[in-house]
Amino acid sequence: VIIHDVNELTEKLFPIVEAMQKHFSAGSGTYYSDSIFFLSVAMHRIMPQEITQIIQVDLDLKYKANIRDLFEEFDNFKEGAVIGIAREMQPVYRHTFWQYRRENPQTRVGEPPPDGLPGFNSGVLLLNLEAMRRSKLYNQLLEPAMVQKLTEKYHFKGHLGDQDFFTMVGMEHPELFHVLDCTWNRQLCTWWKDHGYSDVFDQYFRCEGEVKIYHGNCNTPIPED
């Protein structure tokens, strides 16, 4: 077991992610402390070279399957994919991309699965650090100018840290992501159902199959066995 000091990690992270924080943080500016919410974005830059793959998970999870089975998902990455991540299961990005969607009425951006692009949820992440280091495209997307360009194109202003970054990048470059089945990150939060999206909510929230990981996001109780 290796313990990593949060302050040390944040110190390394800050210069890499500082520029993107203003686009994807809840605060109005760029806070040093916010950097830790972007840890996954630049994990390949701050972890030792000998670490080639990492699973990063939220704390509000309940496991119903062996985590080793999740690790085997790395073997299913297509050429060019660097991160494994499940889709967001609420219409949060239908909401966030409202202006882009209004200007592009035929877009798949923010639409529900299976044909739409609902965005991602970062509660369960498979980070192929080796592939992230090798990917010229992925590292270009971390550059402040590229982040600015994409946020302007999509009129994007988020507050969910790494999840917002991955979602926006995924709209432009879906080939960078291996989409995990919803059963690996069965999100339970229903906040958006009661905040204007009850008519389409179930199209996002539906998840068929035996749940492997429950995610009690927004403090939602997780079912007992």
TrEMBL record:
<dbReference type="GO" id="GO:0140560">
    <property type="term" value="F:xylosyl alpha-1,3-xylosyltransferase activity"/>
</dbReference>
<keyword id="KW-0808">Transferase</keyword>
<dbReference type="Pfam" id="PF01501">
    <property type="entry name" value="Glyco_transf_8"/>
</dbReference>
<dbReference type="GO" id="GO:0005789">
    <property type="term" value="C:endoplasmic reticulum membrane"/>
</dbReference>
<dbReference type="InterPro" id="IPR002495">
    <property type="entry name" value="Glyco_trans_8"/>
</dbReference>
<dbReference type="InterPro" id="IPR042465">
    <property type="entry name" value="XXLT1"/>
</dbReference>
<dbReference type="GO" id="GO:0016266">
    <property type="term" value="P:protein O-linked glycosylation via N-acetyl-galactosamine"/>
</dbReference>
<dbReference type="InterPro" id="IPR029044">
    <property type="entry name" value="Nucleotide-diphossugar_trans"/>
</dbReference>
<protein>
    <submittedName>
        <fullName>XXLT1 xylosyltransferase</fullName>
    </submittedName>
</protein>
